[in-house]
Design a protein that fits this description.
The chain has about 325 residues and is of the alpha/beta class. Helices cover about 35% and strands about 15% of the residues.
Length: about 325
């Protein structure tokens, strides 16, 4: 069976223990990235099973109609980048396990690392030391006794809230009523209001899914309420913050710092993104879930989907109508 894996940027998939499940098949792995439909159509023209790494490459109707041999797309996580209707029309099943799962501890850990790094200006001071300077930046601040604001108390938000408690921070939460109820049950207080959430937080950490209702949910007014000494951290989705708002807010001095792992258009190459030129920003290349243990866990499930399809009994089908269309 012809299997293609896209966007293995760090050339890791063949090294995973789970790869042995599909090693007997004809597997092609692409380590570079393209969104060009012509290039993708050429790369995937003989592919029967397409394996995606989260949302790195959009799979839309214009591409699907040029892939007559494609029979299944599989990945882990949500799939807003896949045109489900077009896949169904062309008889391409989408095999993705959904439902409750474990939190992405890798993302939560990176999120916490960014908080410490930003508050203590670790990357900036490390770079300055290599350049021959000693304690070159204004003094950073600690976390104990400060207020951590968690926007979105889901699986990852709950883990980060626990980290904040362990570090002696006062944790407040904002989000949907159901998540506020869960936060209360776990011993974390909701903010008095949305305005108070931004005004009182020394660190605001975003943990929301990007859906139409949450796109641009963090506004210029929200950021203007933050302290000049505060930090906003986004390891979720760039689209949660209204376009251009973060850059403008940082230039205005509220908040004073940002740490980001996500961008509207990824990958970010060439070093031209405006956030990369700002001294009060720590920017990393979407490393959240990109950790060997997490990737191993992810691909155990993905390759189980592939094996089930190869055996004639596909599982975790999100568009069963595709079977009829085929």
């Amino acid at each position: 069976m012809k299997i293609t894996i896209l966007d293995d940027w760090q050339d890791t998939i063949r090294t995973l223990p789970a790869f042995k499940k599909v090693a007997a098949h004809d597997v092609t792995i692409w380590k570079d990235h393209t969104k060009d439909v012509d290039a993708l159509a050429d790369r995937l023209k003989d592919t029967e099973v397409l394996v995606l790494i989260r949302e790195r490459t959009p799979i839309r109707a214009a591409l699907l109609e040029r892939l007559p041999k494609l029979r299944m797309i599989t990945q882990a996580g949500v799939f807003p980048h896949i045109d489900v209707a077009a896949a169904t029309k062309h008889g391409v099943i989408i095999s993705v396990q959904t439902g409750p799962g474990r939190p992405s501890y890798a993302t939560a850990e990176l999120n916490w690392g960014l908080i410490i790094a930003a508050m203590r200006r670790i990357p900036q001071e490390a770079a300055a030391l290599k350049a021959g300077k000693w304690q070159a930046y204004p003094m950073g601040g600690g976390l104990r006794g400060k207020t951590l604001g968690i926007f979105g108390y889901g699986k990852i938000g709950a883990v980060v809230a626990g980290y904040g408690k362990a570090f002696g921070m006062n944790v407040i939460v904002w989000g949907r009523p159901s998540t506020l109820d869960k936060a209360r049950a776990d011993g974390f207080a909701p903010a008095k209001s949305r305005e108070a959430f931004y005004e009182e937080s020394d660190v605001v950490s975003l943990h929301l899914r990007l859906i139409p209702e949450t796109r641009g949910i963090v506004t210029a007014d929200d950021l203007a309420r933050m302290k000049p000494t505060s930090l906003i951290v986004n390891t979720s989705r760039a689209g949660l913050i209204a376009p251009g708002v973060l850059e403008a807010a940082l230039k205005a001095g509220r908040p004073g710092m940002a740490a980001v792992d996500v961008y509207e258009d990824e990958p970010v190459v060439g070093g031209t993104h405006p956030l990369l030129a700002m001294d009060n920003v720590i920017a990393v290349p979407h490393l959240g879930y990109v950790e060997y243990g997490s990737l191993s866990h992810m691909f155990e499930g993905i390759f189980d989907n592939v094996v089930a399809y190869a055996n004639g009994s596909p599982i975790n089908i999100q568009n069963p109508e595709a079977l009829k269309a085929r």
